[in-house]
Specification:
heterodimer, A: about 450 residues, alpha+beta, eight-stranded antiparallel sheet, six-stranded antiparallel sheet, globular, B: about 240 residues, alpha/beta, seven-stranded parallel sheet, two-stranded parallel ribbon, about 15% strand, SDR family oxidoreductase (chain B)
């Protein structure tokens, strides 16, 4: 069945055959003989990473859990199980995933393929660092158990490997014990980008840290931000209001975005007004610690259904790069100033401190990562190409799970593990068999 | 701890029913034909809920084996839910009596005899709940699926009669008419969104009707009661000229 598919950013849109196996056995039968194929989870990669060059294999049908050991926290699930399902099943039993990205509507397979990071990357590494084993299927149907001991090379290439090393069918991942579903949050106000970087660097001991930057502020306020630090709250830390809801308040269905907003809704004025209000409200809460539920803390945008429609029918791209820690102080002000000057309608930019990377093509390394949304409009691609040059020259790289437009040369400059990755692909006979729009674009 | 037996446990609806019961703290006996498939669903339900789930092989066409099947269950369940069904192909059933027989036996004979057998054991014990998933297709025979519809009509009548017989003796019998459900059985069909339920909604509705707010006959989506009332009310002279 041929369909038009896009990623979460709704740019680009491409035609592909879509296969939807209901089990691992069915998947093996379906992919046999296919070329230019890639696995797809819940479609939350922003760009074209999960659109097959010819064929896209939805693994949402592989949605079964297999086993959980409460003594160790190891959970084995099929690749199509979503983070939301894991949290729903295990938070009430006192367990939370060791690493979570900014949305819970992602699959385990997708999180491994993108080696997603959370607000605790500086301390705990990426999602891939908490994977003990993988059940990987090669395009010819061969199934391999991969771990740090077994098929180790393939294991390290698969973490962050964007689905290009095989189909992840199942994985064993670590959950950590938590006493409650609440986070003790401290808010710090940073008046400049230098302050922001300094506060994040000083917070290496905090379990979670993240800065929300006002991407439109300029001049003296350039890079002003709210830095949020968080710790899992113990049972004893809960106040009277939270005690009946030990694992966080019940989910409320949030507002949705029922249709594509006309392009006018998002303009420099409305976004600037939003950012100003956001910054002031947040700054007013600075100082004393507050208890925040796990949903708004980890997954603030999940409450707004289909928020990707805010950017209109042409979609948007998310621009996320990481810069080496030593270069951030020089380069971030320049990049932020360009973005603010252009006035691209980005609500809030997110700045995080990253630690050491895990897999061969994993995005994170020791440094600072900035992520912001930009509405797709004329001139944007040229503008971002200019930003790419600065990032690449400084030894930075772009996040493949968010990417929809970087060039092959930007990619090659940023990922030194590429030669080994290509070599592994060649040796396992994966070239041509597994290919996405992303891999074709950047020559992966 | 209460126990539910779900027959047809590897279907989308069977899985949803089992999950609804396990989430509410019930032990689950999952029964069906496909051994590896049952193991996969059982592990899923046990992992998600922490409840005990056992698996049991049964072929709904092998009616002679039913007593042995019931005898080997680790415990007589408190509730039995049959979600077994086979849509089949109407066009094929019109000319292929073997296929027609399979459709009829899968939707009527097998499920009715199995629930009938558990009814006797429940009566001996003094309590129990029996849930049969039938179909709105059983309310009026239509050109597009009357072999399936006739079998479901038979099953609906059986459940109604069984209820009439055992209601005063501590047993609860529920007839479920789900309407369209988004499942593997209906994959690729164009289904009207307002009339189509997700499997989990069906599972939750069955749990409510059987355990928390007892009902005799439920449509999962209430709009179906209206739709079927209209379809039943059409005089035959008009109905026979429609394309349904």
């Amino acid at each position: 069945m041929s369909v038009e598919l896009s990623g979460w950013g709704r740019y680009p849109v491409a035609a592909t055959d879509l296969l939807q196996p209901a089990s691992a056995q069915a998947a093996a039968a379906m992919v046999a003989g296919r070329t230019g194929a890639i696995a797809r989870g819940n479609g939350r990669a922003y760009g074209d990473a999960a659109i097959g060059e010819e064929t896209t294999v939805s693994l949402l049908g592989l949605g079964r859990m297999r086993a959980f050991d409460p003594a160790t926290g190891w959970l084995t699930v099929e690749a199509g199980v979503t983070l939301a399902e894991i949290v729903a099943a295990f938070l009430p039993r006192g367990f939370f995933p060791a690493v979570v990205p900014g949305t819970q509507f992602v699959t385990v397979g997708g999180m491994i393929a993108a080696d997603v990071h959370g607000k605790n990357h500086h301390r705990d590494g990426g999602f891939g660092d908490h994977v003990a084993a993988l059940d990987l299927m090669l395009p010819d149907g061969t199934r391999l158990s991969c771990s740090r001991e077994q098929n180790a090379e393939l294991f390290h290439a698969t973490i962050g490997g964007m689905g290009l090393t095989g189909y992840i069918l199942a994985a064993t991942i670590r959950l950590i014990p938590v006493e409650t579903g609440w986070i003790r949050q401290r808010t710090l106000v940073a008046e400049t980008v230098a302050d922001t970087v300094r506060l994040l660097d000083a917070a290496q001991d905090a379990t979670y840290s993240v800065a929300w930057i006002d991407g439109l502020a300029r001049g003296a306020a350039l890079g002003r931000s709210l830095v949020y630090l968080g710790e899992h709250a113990t049972r004893a830390a809960l106040g009277g209001a939270q005690v009946p809801y030990r694992f966080g308040p019940a989910a409320k269905a949030g507002p949705g975005v029922p249709f594509d907003l006309p392009a006018l809704t998002l303009n420099r004025l409305s976004v600037a007004a939003f950012n100003e209000a956001y910054f002031r409200l947040g700054a007013a809460k600075a100082g004393p610690e507050r208890l925040v539920g796990w949903r708004p803390y980890f997954f603030p945008l999940d409450g707004v259904a289909d928020w990707n429609r805010i950017y209109g029918r042409n979609g948007f791209v998310q621009y996320q790069f990481v810069l080496p820690a030593a270069r951030s102080a020089d380069l971030l002000p320049d990049l932020l100033d360009r973005i603010a000057q252009r006035g691209s309608a980005s609500f809030l930019a997110v700045l995080k401190r990253l630690g050491r990377g895990g897999g061969l093509l994993s995005f994170p390394f020791e440094g600072h990562t900035l992520a912001l949304d930009m509405k797709m409009e004329p001139g944007l691609l040229a503008f971002l190409a200019e930003c790419d040059r600065l990032v690449a020259a400084a030894g930075g790289r772009l996040y493949l799970a968010k990417d929809a437009r970087q060039t092959r040369s930007t990619f090659e400059a940023g990922y030194p593990g590429l030669a080994r990755f290509r070599d592994i692909r060649r040796r396992y006979g994966l070239e041509g068999r597994l290919a996405s729009r992303l891999s074709r674009r950047i020559g992966l | 701890m209460k126990t539910v037996l779900v027959v047809g446990g590897t279907s989308d609806v069977g899985r949803a029913v089992a999950l609804a019961y396990a989430t509410a703290g019930w032990c689950v006996q999952l029964a069906g034909r496909d051994g590896p498939g049952l193991e996969r669903e059982a592990a899923d339900i046990a992992t998600r809920t922490g409840m005990a789930v056992t698996t049991h092989r049964i072929d709904i066409l092998d009616t002679d084996a039913f007593p042995a099947f019931a005898d080997t269950l680790p415990a007589l369940p408190d509730t039995v839910v049959s979600v077994v069904g086979l849509l089949g192909e109407q066009a094929r059933a019109e000319t292929d009596p073997v296929h027609a027989t399979t459709v009829m036996r899968s939707n009527f004979e097998g499920p009715a005899l199995l629930l009938g057998l558990f009814a006797e054991r429940f009566l001996a014990r003094g309590h129990g709940t029996l849930v049969g998933v039938s179909s709105v297709a059983g309310e009026r025979g239509r050109a597009s699926n009357y072999v399936y519809g006739a079998a479901k009509a038979g099953f609906t009548a059986f459940l109604s009669g069984l209820r009439n017989r055992v209601a005063k003796r501590g047993l609860h019998v529920v007839t479920v008419k789900p309407g369209f459900i988004r499942t593997r059985m209906t994959a690729g069909m164009k289904l009207p969104a307002r009339l189509t339920a997700e499997p989990q909604a069906v599972g939750d509705a069955i749990f409510r009707a059987a355990e928390t707010r007892p009902r005799d006959v439920i449509y999962v989506k209430p709009v179906w009661a209206l739709v079927m009332a209209i379809i039943r009310a059409l005089p035959e002279t008009i109905f026979k000229r429609t394309k349904l």
